[in-house]
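pipeline: protein-struct stage 2 | run 1193 | Nucleoside/nucleotide kinase family protein
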Amino acid sequence: MPIIQERYIRRLQHLIADGQRRIVGLVGAPGAGKSTLAQVLLESMPNRAVVVPMDGYHLANVELERLGRAARKGAEDTFDSAGYVSLLRRLRAQTPDEVIYAPTFRREIEEPIAGAIPVSTDTPLVITEGNYLLLDHGHWKHVRSLLDEVWYVDVDSNVRRDRLVSRHMRFGRDEDAAKQWVQQTDEVNAALIESTRGRADVQFHWAA
């Protein structure tokens, strides 16, 4: 697991020092390393944090097919954005002794799984990561106000694209199909996400 600068851990520790629930968002283009950073932060805050990915709100493949959006899976309109906003609101208003269950996304089956992540009321830090946390339209526009901080996660674009090709191949596409998907889908989404980076509180850049 990569090591990050201690100042990022201290930032989170300071954020939750008053004992109140805080929600930190990690945003960035596909392949930027959001999930990796979320895991590093989680392991650095033992028993004090939980990771809730936006990807749990992917629409199911059967619904994407019905809507004619399967070839654009990962675009902003292939998620239940209203459901994600509702979860964030619940997490902010969580009552004592309540357990909130969040969905996750399983790449091996390319489907969301409901009720997979328990969030207890005594967990002070929720880390949520995803592509569209800073969009200013649709239901997405409500996300930013529900987050205490947003970190924009970035990495060299060539490294990021290579990661994406490898990821798609690992989960079933051949090399040509993987490269085509990255170029025609992932990079289109990446351009939109990049346009939102100025709204982030922290710019986090992975070393190549």
